[in-house]
Amino acid sequence: MVDIVGAVVAPTFVQPIREEIRVLAATPQEDGSPAWQLLDPVRNRFFRIGWLEFELLLRWNQAEASAIATSVTEETTLHATSDDVEALNRFLQHHELVQLPGGRAAPYLAKRAEGQRGTWLKQLLHHYLFIRIPLIHPEKTLNRIERRTRWIYGRAFWISTALALVIGGILAARQLDTVLVQLSDSMNFHGVIGYTVALMFAKSLHELGHAITATRYGVRVAHMGVALVVMAPMLYTDTGESWKLTNHRDRLKIAVAGVAAELVLAVWATLAWGLLPDGPVRSAMFFLATTSWVLSVLVNASPFMRFDGYFIVADALNLPNLHERSAALAQRRMHAFLFGVSEPDREYFPPKKARLLALFSAVTWVYRMVVFFGIALAVYHYFFKLLGIFLFAVELGWFIILPIWRELREWPALTQQVSTVRKTLYGLMALALLGLIFLPWSSSVYAPGWVFPANQRVIYSPQAARVVAMPFKENQNVQAGQVVFELEAPELKDSAQQATILAEAYSRQAANLPVISERGEALSAKAMQQSREMMQQAHAQSEASARLKLVAPFSGTFQDATEGVEVGTWVNSQLPLGRLVDAHLWRAELLVPEQALDRVALGQTVKLYQHHHAVAPVIGQVTSIDAVRVTVLPHAMLDVHSGGSIVTHHEHNRDVATEALYRVGITLPANVSLTNEALCEGRIEAKPQSLWQRWLPPLLAVLVRESGF
Q1: Residue 399 contacts residue 230 (beta carbons within 8 Å)
Q2: Domain range annotation of the chain
Q3: pLDDT of the residue at 490
Q4: What share of the chain is helix, strand, coil (3-state, %, to 5)?
């Protein structure tokens, strides 16, 4: 063989394919070209190849790469090169589909197996993250079950199931309040047991649906068992041989069968729950229905993890290895966007479909990152501290950090192809990012709060009394010293009169007693003492009656008069009668988070923006900072449940702020014109702070808190 400059090049020979490897027809490629699958029956693995690879394999017995390529080019409409043959040869070697020379096969395979197993630590981590435990080999049993359940796949059964769905849905909708009550009542120990049993039954039926449908289409179910995913048990069915089916719609039916079985169970269980009387059977139907509906929709239908939803989408689109192929497509798009690298896609897709697949890959990566981070937090809190930290690191490292690191390793080679303009732009962006993180540019502290009159008084009766007079009505002006409410308590007047009469009686008794002896003098002194006590009691009762005239302590407006209170009405000391408000001077209070409190100081300027009002901000000044965190909110309207923005939780019969908040008092100018209390958002012109300064203390606090054993 001679190259273009006349040098002799040694011919390249390919390795023969193993004799047991089978070639099966597959559904066409996206561009309409034919496709095939290589079956390795020893490992039960399938490898998809295209038209060019198939034509090369047809001539593989020619052994020499250039001869195979020339034969394909001359005998077909395809153009093949020696590089194509060598690439296919490397692919076959990598997946152990070729024969090895005598005497070298056993040592080579042993060495390769040892390399694939890796270190003991890697094996331990692999078995911790995922392990499958086959329990049964149900091929014969499934054949018998499939023959007896063919009626399930008939039209009559599905029509009756649709009717059951309609009737059960109507019955459940009519008893929605009962459903909600039963859901609430099932959140206990017995409910957990009921849901667990229902889950086991539903999942067993789910896997049986896969197995029976696979058997129906001639796919051998090698085994069924339990898979441990991060030590969490899940049932599984081995339907790996479904790729023997050339029609992707048949594979789709196998993938859908599990979810369909659960949904059918949910439909008939819902109907049974709606028709049965109260009792254990009805409760069991409730557990089956709720478990099947929720898990089928929320878990199995997700296409972002390798659950049924993924295989359903892959088979519906006829895209085997959907995650890997979309990830490769998204990676090429990302390289082109970041580095301007023009790399051809490994396989052809229409432009619109290619964009959707790339977007699907990006969403899948974000979804998985959130799920795996949640699993990492779960295992951290589930196990004891030392093991929890280790497993937390394993989860983050294996599922999040390692994929990112593998991608970043390819970037140095790609940066060599980046243009000077793009490098300069990235340098400027990096400097801007560093400045954003480390420069103290943020000089504002934002906090929720409320504005209110500085002088206001809620009017209460000192005791149970009857309203005698109400001189003022709603929104009328009141001058300081004027009576707002006049009340009376007849028992006070009676007690004062009785005490006065007794005082006079004791006084006369003291005057009439002879004082010529010590005994007479003592009795006279005792009577005088009793007279003074009665006079003091009468005076106290008179003062109590005088306090029933509720006088305005300052000038203002009478507001929020209690509905139903009028002359002649009896009121108690817990009933607010109204509110006196001085609208000339206003104040505000902001609830500042603990991490921003050190940036707030007395005298700082504050801008207050009222909620739902597009008006100019009110300028105020910080005049007080509480040293103790707020537990109960100063006004109910600040609570998120009442339209505010502060999240609370119920504790000790009161709503307590979830976040550590501190009250900051704001004084407003005297010329501020406001009409009523309102929510506001405050912006305090505080000390400048960088993002790094903002993030570092909470991060260190978490590390210190969690480092204790």
Answers
A1: no
A2: 22-116, 120-318, 321-418, 446-450+584-706, 455-571
A3: 84
A4: 55, 20, 25
Q: Give the distance, in angstroms, between the CA of residue 426 and the centroid of all CA atoms in the same chain.
A: 34
Rounded Cα–Cα distance for residues 18 and 60 (Å): 12
Strands of the sheet with 483-488, listed across from one edge: 549-551, 483-488, 465-469, 570-571
Distance CA 640, CA 637 (A): 8
What is the pLDDT confidence band of residue 108, given thresholds at 50, 70 and 90? low
Report, as an integer, the average pLDDT of 46-53. 86
For position 296, what pLDDT does the model report? 65
CATH 2.40.30.170 assigned to 446-450+584-706: yes
- The pLDDT of residue 110: 56
Q: Are 440 and 692 contacting, i.e. CB atoms less than 8 angstroms apart?
A: no
Q: Tokens at residue 419, please?
A: 């243009």
Walk across the sheet containing 35-40 and list its strands: 22-26, 35-40, 45-49
Beta bridge partners of 622: 666
Residue-by-residue DSSP string for 620-689: EEEEEE-SS-EEE-SSGGGBGGGTSSB-EEEETTEEEEEEEEEEEEEE--TT----S-EEEEEEEEEEEE
Element (H, E) at 487: strand 483-488
CA distance 461 to 464: 7
**pLDDT surpasses 90 at 140:** no
* Cβ contact 489:466 at 8 Å: yes
User: What are the C-alpha distances in Å from 419 to residues 341, 425, 459?
Assistant: 10, 10, 76
* Per-residue DSSP letter, 463: S
Beta carbons within 8 Å of 375's beta carbon, 6+ residues apart = 230, 395
What stretches of 98-138 show up as alpha helix (H) in DSSP? Answer: 105-117, 120-129
* CA 312 to mean position of chain CA atoms: 25
Handedness of CA 645, 648, 654, 660 (dihedral sign): negative
> What six digits make up the tokens of 472?
């003022």
Strand partners, 558: 580
* Largest CA-CA distance found in the chain, in angstroms, rounded: 157
- Tell me which residue has tokens 């000077």: 420
Q: How many residues does the chain have?
A: 709
Q: Alpha-carbon distance 563 to 549, whole Å? A: 20
Amino acid at 241: E
**Radius of gyration of the chain, Cα coordinates, nearest whole angstrom:** 42
CB 57 within 8 A of CB 91: no
Q: How far apart are CA 555 and CA 561, in angstroms?
A: 17
Distance in angstroms (rounded) separating the CA atoms of residues 661 and 498: 55
* CA 374 to the chain's CA centroid: 9
What residue type is assigned to position 396 of the chain?
L
Q: Residue 441 phi/psi, 5° resolution?
A: -100, -20
End-to-end CA distance of the chain: 71
- The amino acid at residue 623 is T
- What's the number of CA atoms in the CB half-sphere (13 Å) around residue 146? 19
- Enumerate the H helices of 276-384 as residue ranges: 280-295, 308-317, 322-339, 351-382
pTM of the model: 0.62
Token code pair at residue 141: 């049993």
Helix axes 420-438, 691-706, angle to 10 degrees: 70
Give the Cα-Cα-Cα angle 146, 152, 153 (nearest 5 degrees): 90
> 483 with 477: CB under 8 angstroms?
no
DSSP, collapsed to helix, strand or coil, labels residue 373 as: helix
Q: What pLDDT is attached to residue 274?
A: 87
C-alpha 594/C-alpha 664 separation (Å) is 11
Q: How many Å apart are CA 545 and CA 590, to the nearest integer?
A: 41
Q: How many CB atoms lie within 10 A of CB 376?
A: 22
